[in-house]
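The material for today's practical consists of a large collection of protein records. Backbone structure tokens are a discrete shorthand for how the chain folds in space. An example says more than a description, so a record of this kind follows:
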Amino acid sequence: MFIHLKEDIGCVFDRDPAARNVLEVLLSYPGVHALIFHRLAHNLWNVGLKLLARWFSSFARWLTGIEIHPGARIGRRFFIDHGMGVVIGETAEIGDDCTLYHGVTLGGTSWKKGKRHPTLGNNVIVGAGAKILGPITVASDARIGSNAVVLKDVGRGNTVVGVPGRIISGVKTDQEQARKKIAEKMGFDAYGMHDEMPDPVANAINNMLDHIHTMDKRLEDMCGAIKGLGAEIGDMQLTDLGPCEISSASSSQNADENTENDESQKENAG
């Protein structure tokens, strides 16, 4: 238990730049407090003292705002950042080196006994407010974006965002994995998100618009070729789609910055 406690405290320094010393972590990190109580309650649960185990978990919830059922299985170097509102169900399983942020729910979708909560592999990051529901598996190295709702299995190395959850990136190449290791030494992507994360809905719509523009151009070329052969085709003015690109919240900020730069360049040129 003390070996696990040492690892749990050590991983805080790896993933939270605000942590300054061991005493501060022991006294002021609710995620560490909840994990200490859970490890004790889980041992009591396994030896059959279930009522006492539930009392410890209820006390930990009152103290920290984090609810972990004593039957849940949690691996090593587990970190809950901020922690308020985190709920982990009875049959949930969490691997090693996982990170959860506040408001995360590992919940069930059925009242039947048996496996009803998610299983997380190793090195999984779950962003703030995300909900992972049902007896599904989130494989190792996966990343769940903030406020995502995940109802289906997630493959190894995938990134999921949105409601319902959509996969926006898959398994990384060896070169990308090497870059990730270097990035982990330099910093940490908090909340399972990063600045350049694309919007899957906007991306899908933009791909459809690109396809429509391409088909429109091909249709014009076909009509021109048919007219060149002497056929008569009535001209019909189609509505111009124009630059109807869908922007995500992150890209709109970049667009505003580009517009301001263009305006400043015009003023300087004038």
About this structure: Residues 200-228 form the longest helix (29 residues).
